[in-house]
Fold these 2 entries.
Entry 1:
Amino acid sequence: MSLKLSKFATSLTGDSGTTSLMQDLGEALAADRNYLMLGGGNPGSIPPVQSALREELAKLANDPERFNAMVGPYDSPQGDHQFLSAIASLLRDECGWDVGPENCMLTNGSQAGFFLLFNALAGEFDDGSRKLIELPLTPEYLGYADVGLDNSPLFRSRRPKIETVDSHTIKYRVDFDNMTLGEDSAAICVSRPTNPTGNMISDDEVRELQRIARAGGVPLIIDGAYGQPFPGIVFNDATALFDDNTIVFLSLSKLGLAGIRTGIIVGPAELIAGLSSMNAITNLAPGSAGPGLMLDLVRSRKILNLSREHVQPYYRDRADFAVDVLANAMGDTPWKIHQPEGAFFLWTTFPDIPLHSQKLYERIKDRGALVIAGHHFFAGLEHDPWQHKTECLRITYAQDKDDVRKGIEIVADEVKRAYDGA
Ligand SMILES: Cc1ncc(COP(=O)(O)O)c(C=O)c1O
């Protein structure tokens, strides 16, 4: 059968970083070979979190009324109201945000929420004009890159300022000299902590972005998939900031529930109402397994205890471990990392390495380890001839320590070979 595809389908089935990486991961999982998984964004399996989830599941299974309420009816397009009230109350009490349930909604994973929001704010308008999402600090989450409804650019991206922390550590900062908005700006968006770098954009930087967004009449979007208040994978004392011109994305995925697909959007009530209508058209309703499973944990605030006492320490420990292994394995070979301040990635960079990150990735994969080549994370800077874009790798340290160690040792070996011109 030869199908003629629309612009929408051509754009979503074309050559995209997200698709090729998800396929690569899927193939690796299905392959006979046991790859060391230092590539994707899968959360670790943390025993106290797992046992809290199993307890909730057992409670639901033993309560026919609650069980049916979870699996039987469709929720409203905004999502389960009890859960949204519990989330709003947690955000009010714990973070001091001025929100009610009308400011919150659910999507089938925050990725689905970004698809709705970015296309609601940016893209083509009635009068033929186009608007762009401003990314102040690139490298940025590669899942944003391909969500536009057609192939036209959806982002305006900027290089960061690069601060030297020590001989092996850098930190990206927003370059405010280059942060002016235009008539065609739709919104500013940052992930915090940032995927792929583990950067926590500082409170001051967020406040300045809030100021710029408000002055420019556009919202600031903060993607808190790894951030506060849950799963709280943040290694410094940054604050969860919000105001009436900010839209925050939260997710249950990185707590260990990526398979359940629950994203939470917090923002102005009018926007939430509009996005909920879009949710109705694309999904009828968001899934109710996430809210059903997590309702009591949110109401009791146990979700925060789990985040603080187990999730954050688990990744903090893994981050330290990964840095130690890398430092030992690299020896005298040049290497740098972004300062790990959150999430669960080590962003490594190899100055002047004479091999493109794609080739380096392929050699590492041939040796049985999966990482992600850094050039995928520069959406909007495709035409910028910046050498740094092809000198980086993202290494996930969420999984088994032994695998993380073996994987990093393979990376170090291949980086050395590349510097040696092999
Ligand atoms: C920064 C960031 N935002 C959003 C997402 C999407 O998460 P989900 O759709 O599972 O909620 C991810 C997934 O890896 C991510 O890393």
Entry 2:
Amino acid sequence: MNKNEIIDKLKEKNIRAVARLLTLIENEEKEAENILKEIWNFTGKSYIIGITGPPGAGKSTIVDLLSKMAIEKGHKVGVLAVDPTSPFSGGAVLGDRLRMTSSQETGIFIRSVASRGHLGGLAATTRFMINAIEMLDNDLTIVETVGAGQGDVEIVQIADTTIVVEVPGLGDEVQAQKAGILEIGDILVVNKCDRPGSDRLARELKMMLSLGEKKDWMPPIVGTTATNGDGFDFLWKEIKNHKKYLGTDRKAEMRLKRINYELENQVSQKLFTKKMVQIGTNEISKMSKKILERKIDPLTAVEEIIRE
Ligand SMILES: Nc1nc2c(ncn2[C@@H]2O[C@H](COP(=O)(O)OP(=O)(O)OP(=O)(O)O)[C@@H](O)[C@H]2O)c(=O)[nH]1
Ligand SMILES: [Mg+2]
């Protein structure tokens, strides 16, 4: 399929065209950018739920259950599992890929991809992948990302509702992480409630929340056991609550802020690269030598390079 064929097929909600575009984005092909430019108008219509948390917390199992629930309630669902590292050797993501087959029959479109975010950061790339899936006219997109530092924060740039999954028994070293996690979660899920320690973890999280600043939206804590579905009615209810809280105004405002932030980032990055090319490394190394020899101070050196 060439570019125009893909675009035509995308407009017909063709699953293979969507899969093709996702691969192009994944492989950082220039063609992906050309297609994305053409379909922008048709995207942005789905409600986005982001699920993040430490490896093995049960995110995929939760996504699986949630998407099936959503289908039952009449939604059309797209699922994206993003692994920022190199997932193709990883068992868990292979699991996601396999699940893709079984879920397709139920009308869920699932795709797991690797992304190192070369189209302008992980958040931007994930956003483009969501746009690709949105060509299928799904009203709900669920995105799973591994919560390993940066990725955590980036998911907030994408999702309308961010769910942070925690599990008991990870030890005290995650303690420090939790504070940051509380910042980004609209809903906190304590999964694996069939295991000991879940009550304690829920209490801890509640404590930490009560110590933090008061906000309009205080994240609820939901206990789940993803392997048997316990707590999912409550989780669904809280997702609906948060969606209602956002309404159209808060959601639009939030999305605008993010677009603004992303645009600023992209423009400054592009400008930076362009300027650096103009200045050239030669100029920089000449100046470095002068600084070393005390012929110029580093502060003036920067000013002079920029002035030129
Ligand atoms: N006991 C118990 N096991 C669970 C629960 N939820 C998930 N699991 C198991 O935990 C393991 C990891 O689940 P996944 O859903 O793959 O976890 P994940 O967070 O997606 O993992 P990564 O994508 O690798 O980060 C699987 O063996 C699940 O069956 C739960 O509520 N209780
Ligand atoms: Mg997973």
